[in-house]
Amino acid sequence: MIVPFLKIQINEQEIELSDNIRKTFQPINNVNHTILSIDSEIQKIVTCPNCKKEKEKLKYIYKHESVLLDLKTEMEKLITERNNYVISTNDEESIKLSKLKNCLASLNNCYRIYNEKQINLKKCISVEKPELLKYLNSSYSPIVMGFPDFIIAIYNDFFLLFDTDNCFIGAYSFFDFKINIVKNTKKVYFRIEHKYESLITMINFQEIKKQLDDNGQGYDSDYIVFDSKCIEKGQTGFSYLHERVDGGPDRRYRDNPYTMYRTDNMQFGVLTFSFGNIEYTFNISSNKCINLFDDYINYTKRERERHVNLLKDN
Questions:
Q1: For residue range 16-46, what is the model confidence (pLDDT) as tens digits?
Q2: Alpha carbon of 224 to those of 113, 184, 185, 207: distances in Å?
């Protein structure tokens, strides 16, 4: 799948690197396609789909033995040719890349991440590297993210785009890949159920919250839980199974379960990954994640301004 991308101006060094990567990966892609085609031909001979008996299959393979040997020789030659394509980057891991790695790592500890299309962000940031990356040597590991339609590998000053079959599409400036975080708030209903009213006076409210942290229950939301920041606490109220007209407990019932509730104004983050006209948005609960992404974005804004100023000076 070829995806349309918007590009910004990049300096000559990055253009040269992008061209070198393209010149390296394109023949590798071509060789890989040829290898797959040869492998398909070998499988057709070895499996002999039209052979009904094992003897027929063996006879068919023996008949095509010379063809198999020629295909095997050609494949080995192509594999040797492919291994000769290598490009190296001589830079060390940048601060901005290190900050982004910390941001993405923090998402693994985020209690809730919500996406309308049910995209699992934690799986997106834990995909395997495309095979082609072994032909690009660097002193640090790139960030690899796999989205539904493509995969990207992020380096210091550029990122590489691959399709879902790990075929190289293009190399783009680091600043073409945009990340944004917006802090939003939402009033959320918080509930804790208890059978006996006296229990509430015995247990501290915060301790009850801690007991619910592991399973994320309590807040009535898909993306707000106990790792979210509370902006403003609401007033605590009670609702009973059997209530009087004024909302109090009906004392005629000895067993009268109730719910203690509160409506809190909570903060959550709207995290967006965008490149060109493609955008993915996630609501995240963790206040720690929000702060890390906020710090990263502020840092990259300064880096981008410095980058643009260098281009103007040149």
A1: 656 667 777 778 778 888 998 999 999 999 8
A2: 9, 11, 10, 18
